[in-house]
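Notebook entry, structure prediction.
Reason for the run: the old model in the group folder had no record of what sequence produced it. Starting over properly, with the input documented here first.
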Amino acid sequence: MKYFSRKQLFTLLLFFISATTFAQTELRGKVADFLTYQPIESASVYLENTTIGSITNADGNFVLKVPQQHLQDTLVISSIGYKSFKVVISEFENGADIFLEEDVASLDEVVIVADPRPKTGNGIVQKAIEKLPSNLPETAYLQKGFLRHKERNKKEYKWLIESAITLYDSSYASGAKNNLKINVDETRKSYDLRDVDSLFTYSAYLKSIGSKAGNLSRNKIKTSSLVEAIKWNDSRVNGLENLFKGKLNLVRNSNATGALFGKNILEKQQFDLDTILVDNGRKLYKIKISKGKDFVGLNTPNIYNEGFEPKGWIYIYYDNYAIKKIEYELVAASDVQKKRSKSLFDTQTIHKLIMTYIEYDGKMYPNYIYYETPKLVNTGDRSSDRIKTEAEPGFDKDEQYYYTIQEILFSDIIQDPELINQELQQNDWSADIFEERISPVSGSTSRITPPMPSRM
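New structure, fully documented this time:
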């Protein structure tokens, strides 16, 4: 069995690389900090005023394929807190190291401002939430993007599937449950090294449909039945539908009942102003997220998902209070959740989310999403049989605990009502990544193509 390290997978499977059927020039390079020489991960690498772009990996390396007709365009490399690097593509030195200089504004510049602006992190975030109706899209739109869904244990990657997806959203004012749609247009499974996804999952699935599990063994379960169980398990927490329509879509669903970033936002989390950064010449508040007075609960159907405390960062533009980026984690905090998380997952960090937004025509659109969560597999067996299993020769604890990672990069924004209506009528809108799909050949479309922002 071939093993894949994290760096190998990142380098080998950069689905952020833009694809085209025409002749291309391949650009390569490494992005690093000017003072420390340390690589900058997730710096944005793109062609100005296009959706052709990539993101640097953990070593700061990037690969970008550029169609010949864009060789006189400008290459932009940027990351929050750094001055952007720009060069005409034809003048770019392939394979070169690009060093970004720090670009941080003074916190004093904000504190001494005389206008009635909020001065605390709590006040700034509340102002940003109040401004969402004016900063998020007011009309319907489509977005095209790419999904990479992968699973790993502590030793190796076990499964990878890549998909082209379409997102439809009627507007921020409408509820996501009935007015937001996701479709998997195409899928490509790169590899599958899972022996058994989970007998524990299958047992829970049978219970959910009113069947008795009995004594289970993998060779007695039909593959089709196991796939249904996996789909059911994914849909409870980390399926595409739940990710976009649930509480973890913090900004889009902040107007929903019980939202984590809703009207009672300060009950679940507190916000402290840390510093002021710069992003392409615009000031950004960098605000720390910490626990509030009460635990965070997700109220997920059919799964215990309560008793967390949040931590992370939120980045908000100084001029219009638009949310640029959120780094958000939910960590086990209650006694019950701590014990459960240690037993089932061997980690206290249960949900890790990164979301970035891109501005176009004065509105913020989702651009990049990273979501990681542990997944129930055979570690769910807490019976005496588990103790016996762990005592057997060759038992490897690092192979038992699984993690699911989803990465989504959006490119085109489509606002044309006729094109949107056409897509709504022709598309059957299924978010099922397990179903084999081939995208139908479509005619030419007119699309808005904003540049890709950075992910830090």
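Summary: Confidence is low (pLDDT under 50) at residues 1-22, 379-385, 439-456.
The old model has been moved to the deprecated folder.
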